[in-house]
User: What shape does this take?
Amino acid sequence: MTTTQNMGGDTTPAVELNISPEKVCFIIVKAREFDVKVDPVEPDPGSNPADDGERAVLEDYADDPTQAELVGAITSLNEDEVVDLITLAWIGRGDYIATEWEEARALAAERHREGSARYLIGIPTLGDFLEEGLAALGHSCEEFEVNRL
Assistant: This one.
């Protein structure tokens, strides 16, 4: 594995991702939307969304599309992309460091199964971990977030 030097003088491993940073950034946004959901205060509110300040959007109702969007974004990825996503989450969480990319990716590939979307959305603060993993490899969501957040 080669390394590159960033503007701060730090070296980051030169890793060729199988998933585009844009896809990771989209999943980060969806994961953060999902993470802020809370249990509903009132199971069947019946009020007008304009009257309650749209607060219901933060509550986790059964018919809420946020989880479906996140799961859909993950399940639409090919196997190599999912393995990279898991590896980025592990690096962002601190299980591995960026220079251990190959080792972490090999383990993610070994453990990757059909339930990867369920595994990933079960990680609290998944969006933050993915963003940290991208940053460790020298990528940013800054350009992606312009006009989206």
Summary: Confidence is low (pLDDT under 50) at residues 1-9, 53-61. The helical segments are 21-35, 65-75, 79-93, 101-111, 116-121, 126-136, 142-145. The radius of gyration is 17 Å.
